[in-house]
Specification:
Layout: E1 3-4, H1 7-13, E2 18-23, H2 29-41, E3 44-49, H3 59-63, H4 69-79, E4 83-85, H5 89-92, H6 111-114, H7 118-133, E5 137-141, H8 145-157, E6 163-167, E7 170-171, H9 187-208, H10 214-226, E8 231-240, E9 253-262, E10 265-274, E11 279-281, E12 284-285
Parallel strand pairs: 1-4, 2-3, 2-5, 3-4, 5-6, 7-12
Antiparallel strand pairs: 8-9, 9-10, 10-11
This protein binds adenosine monophosphate.
Length: 296
């Protein structure tokens, strides 16, 4: 039994240590890197594939979210998954479901400020997945750096016995962070979208060359993105990796995050600064085109 639809079936099929990789499906190498890491560390890897309606503020975004469960099953199994948990909306939110998990502080700025209710949806579904699957570890991408901070807060605050692990951002050769939403970018908007990572990389170079003004770094990112036609920048922020609070000085581990719309597609990206070691983690670039672009 590889595909399971209920929490009870996940628990009875899983054995030994359990690593959980929560996803919304339409998998790419970013997801596969999480699954591969989970497979190295655990006896059973559970990949959840669930397009969580409660984290979409905009119903039209939910309607066009790409799905292909057969493709996801094949990719996830190849990467080392033991179980694919693909529940129905009714299983996750049965009639009468009322509880909403709200994480304070860490969820307020950036994505929280621009996508009302988004992190309530994320925190609620992650809480359900943690309590229903009962994993030992759960794997999340640093691509969604604020989400990672929210999940870590939630697990700590609610004393959940789950190790929350953050994995590097996986990128196209061009630098564009992989996202299931990238399939909605045509050739031209894909090229425009490259300006997000290019601006973050330029900011990293500037920091490594000695720039320490957060204001200058943010302006550098904003001006290089705004100079590209067809891009609507939502925010550029430097934020603490643990609290996700925006910062006006470099200190400790922080991420420089951007969100922008390229046509109808909303994209986010970030790079992580370790100001003690004076290093910047830009993530990992693929050697060839991603599977989202027809690569293998
Ligand atoms: P999603 O299916 O977009 O909700 O993502 C599921 C998980 O995969 C989340 O923990 C994401 O942060 C992670 N993820 C998505 N894209 C990437 C990427 N390009 N690199 C690393 N992790 C990613």
């Amino acid at each position: 039994m590889t595909i399971v639809r209920t929490f009870a079936d996940v628990r009875s099929a899983a054995s030994g240590t359990v690593g959980l990789v929560p996803t919304m499906g339409f998998l790419h190498e970013g997801h596969l890197s999480l699954i591969e890491s989970a497979a190295k560390d655990n006896d059973t890897v559970v990949v959840s594939v669930f397009v969580n309606p409660t984290q979409f503020g905009d119903p039209s975004d939910l309607d066009v979210y790409p799905t292909d469960l057969d493709r996801d099953i094949e990719l996830a199994l190849d990467a080392g998954a033991g179980l694919i948990f693909a529940p129905s909306v009714d299983h996750m939110y049965p009639f009468g479901h009322r509880t909403v998990v709200t994480v304070g502080g860490v969820a307020d700025a950036m994505e929280g400020a621009h996508r009302t209710g988004h992190f309530d949806g994320v925190a609620t579904v992650v809480t359900k997945l943690f309590s229903g699957v009962q994993p030992d570890s759960a794997y999340f991408g640093k691509k969604d750096a604020q989400q990672l901070a929210v999940v870590r807060s939630l697990a700590a605050d609610l004393a959940m016995p789950v190790a929350v692990l953050g994995m590097p951002v996986i990128r196209e050769q061009s630098g564009l962070a992989l996202s299931s939403r990238n399939v909605h970018l045509d050739q031209q908007s894909r090229r425009s979208a490259d300006c997000l990572s290019a601006a973050l990389f330029r900011a990293a170079e500037s920091y490594l060359a000695g720039e320490r003004s957060v204001q200058h770094i943010r302006e550098l990112v904003a001006s290089s993105i705004s100079s590209v036609p067809g891009i609507d920048l939502e925010y550029v922020e430097l934020a603490d990796s643990t609290t996700a609070r925006p910062a006006m000085a470099f200190a400790g581990e922080q991420f420089l995050a951007v969100a922008a719309r390229v046509g109808n597609v909303r994209l986010i990206d970030n790079v992580t600064f370790d100001t003690d070691a004076t290093t910047v983690d830009l993530g990992i670039r693929l050697a060839g085109p991603s599977i989202l672009q027809g690569g293998s």
